[in-house]
Amino acid sequence: MADLVDVSFPVEGILPKKETCADAFITKYPEWNGDGTLIAILDTGVDPGAAGLQTTPSGKPKIVDLIDATGSGDVNTSCVVEAQNGVIKGLTGRNLQIPASWKNPTGQYHIGTKVLFELYPKGLKDRILKERKEQQWDPQHRVALADSIKRLENFDNKHNGNSNLSPEDKCIREDLQAQVDILTNFDKKSVDVGPVFDCIVFHDGNTWRACIDTSEKGELDQCKLLASYREEHEFGRINNSDMLNYSVNIHNDGNVLEICANAGSHGTHVACITAGYFPDKPERNGLAPGAQIIGVKIGDSRLGSMETGTALVRAMIKVIEHKCDLINYSYGEASHWNNSGRVCSILLCFITVECVP
What is d(CA 292, CA 309) in angstroms, rounded to the nearest whole number? Predict the structure, then answer.
């Protein structure tokens, strides 16, 4: 049976061009590769670092824009401060060292904070929580618990089973027992809220830029400085443990920072099916490798990647603003009433179907 295994599966085999007759169309019309077409991917978000989503065959950026329509990545950066001796105090209380390479003619910085776990997909959050517990919490907690138990045992041994304790000794023993009880309960009931990052936004004289203190130490020269994605098509990575890529958009004169990070892998998957381009391995190409895309996140990371009506409305506004030619929307749940409700009415207002004879 091993001789019958299709060695191309599951790499090329997961894109069934043959079964859908797409390969016949591509063979017949090789020049029709989607060049000049803009496709909106309404989904969990699209990873800007994914293979196949870097450029088109003509060298244009594959991803035109990345947008979080859910609000899960929004940061209030309306607090404005000025640096003192090259340092600003973040809202976390950390001292943030301003790199000498930053250009800020006004000297003003918009600051805010973001809880990292609000950006994580559920699977990633579960993994990181487990790793943090095993690497950071458990070793120190076990030492503290063992030490408190030992102190209590030593006290009991010294006082011969606590038969005739003075009032003062009783208080001491109750305190030692309370320490053991509290540390034991901590292990069962503690909640890890995750890292909290300082966020900095400023205008460099030409455009708005943002930096997220992923160092958690105020060492901003070690962190990525980004403009809105549509301007420079740059992105950063939180760290090498979570491998979560992110981009930013800046709104309201620096008062709102939008951090775009995927709520799951589905959006990247369908983006590659739609328009992935692998110059060295064309068999992996999507159906329209020449097309460009915008990734619009409608799956809220705070809701387990569930979409909301608000996110869909915002997404359609962006689709119209970008004058997209097509929308890929393989997302959603069953509805009680078909083709009804606010979202459907807005979709019908925005979408025009043209019949070509």
Answer: 26
